[in-house]
Amino acid sequence: MMDLVQAIGNGLLLGAVYALLGLCIVLIYKASGVFNFAIGQFLIIGAYLFYFFYSGLSLPVYVSLPLGILAAAAMGSLIERLTINPLLGRDPIFMTKATLGLYFFLGALLQIGLVYLGSPGWAPLNLPDISLQSDDLVFLSENIWAAVFAGLTFLAVALFFFFSHWGLAIRAVSEDQAKALAYGIDSRFILMLAWALSAVSVAICGILISNAGILSASIASVGFRAIPVALIGGFDSVLGALIAGCLIGVFETIIAMYVEPLGLIGFKDVAVYILMLIVLFIRPSGLFGTVPIERV
């Protein structure tokens, strides 16, 4: 019984990070109807930007974090301006294709940068130890901090999205870009804002994941966890991203604890996508996604 409690607890801590990853997909989709395939590259580049200030320049974390966030926002804005903005007004499928090309381009650019410039290095964030431990349960400090920061970021973005003027503008643009322009809303700026906000959120995910001691281009693959989160929760649902992220985190840790010891090593990575397919067979729009209404 305590093993199950441990698995669920670890799953919820991990799920908070997955939920934030899913939110990064939802933000861009709600603003433009585009699925961002390059989220994994945004994750690792955002982490490297932070560690450039924190480890490379040896600045304190309270200085490096704002600078890293600003750098990630600038990166997201610049990429949107160069690759997505020229396609504004066209079918969103063209923008989605552009993000697929962006995934490979940014990956190659990152590899070239690491070869010629080297890694900025890694150092622990030295956050206070808040590990929770009893006779049968252990929750590591790094996992708790990751969940706390991911949860606070998720909450801040959700409040911005639902209760700010800019959040209302993003939702208006998502309904119809042409009509939003007609009502005086700068769709191009709003789309850039959504990309910047998404880049900041996914960069924070990269920092939290890297704080566990892993900083390499390979962690870009973690970004693919945003795909089942967004599909299960619903592409246009912020609440869906939160619930689906926690659900996938718990599901993954339970599979790792009870199924993989039977000899199915690595099955937790496959099981998440099996769960995604089951949900999509039952509800193609996701658990909380908007069901499209078709006129006959």
Number of strands: 2
Can you write the helix and strand succession as a string? HHHHEEHHHHHHH
Distance between the termini: 52 Å
In what range is the share of β-strand residues?
A: under 5%
Q: Largest beta sheet: what is the strand line-up? A: 1-2
Estimate the global geometry from the Cα principal axes.
globular
What is the overall pLDDT average? 87
* Structural class estimated from helices and strands: mainly alpha
Please summarize the sheet with the most strands: 2 strands, antiparallel
Number of helices, where a helix is a run of at least 4 consecutive DSSP H or I residues = 11
Radius of gyration: 19 Å
**Low-confidence parts:** none
Helix percentage range: over 70%
Quick description:
The protein is 70% helix and 1% strand.
Describe this protein's structure:
This protein has a domain of 204 residues. Helices cover 70% and strands 1% of the residues. It contains eleven helices and two strands. Strands 1-2 form a two-stranded antiparallel ribbon. Helix 1 runs antiparallel to helix 8. The mean pLDDT is 87.
Properties at a glance:
mainly alpha, 296 residues, two-stranded antiparallel sheet, single chain, 2 strands, globular
